[in-house]
Amino acid sequence: MLAIIGLLLSVVGAIGAFVYSIIILIENFKESVGWGIASLLLGIPWLIFVIMRFEQVKKPFFRYLGCVGLVILGTIVASLGGDPSAF
To answer: Model-level pTM?
Structure first.
């Protein structure tokens, strides 16, 4: 049962992180097409944009981090609820 709860937490967190990363990517494209394409293809410009325009993307970035935390928590819960005879 614990494994199922952990899996659900991880899936919800992953979907949320995906949505909020898309929201930040949209802000990148609003800034300039170059920022958007670079962030889409490389990833590092996404983080640089968040640092440079922190006030602009503060809310979705913290929500993104919360969703990543939910994925980590769900993974831990799922691993604790796994089958002990598998080891």
So the answer is: 0.84
Q: Identify whether the C-beta of residue 38 lies closer than 8 Å to the C-beta of residue 13.
A: no
Q: Distance between CA atoms of 56 and 30, rounded to whole angstroms?
A: 11
Distance set, CA 82 to CA 11, 58, 73 (Å): 17, 36, 14
Whole-number Å distance between alpha carbons of 26 and 20: 10
Classify residue 51 as exposed, middle or buried by CB count within 10 Å of its CB (0-12, 13-18, 19+): exposed
**pLDDT tens-digit profile of 21-80?**
999 999 999 999 998 999 999 989 999 999 999 999 999 999 999 999 999 999 999 988
Go through 6-45 and write b for each residue having 16 or more CB atoms within 10 A of its CB, e for each that does not.
beebbeebeebbeebbeebbebbeeeeeebbebbeeeeeb
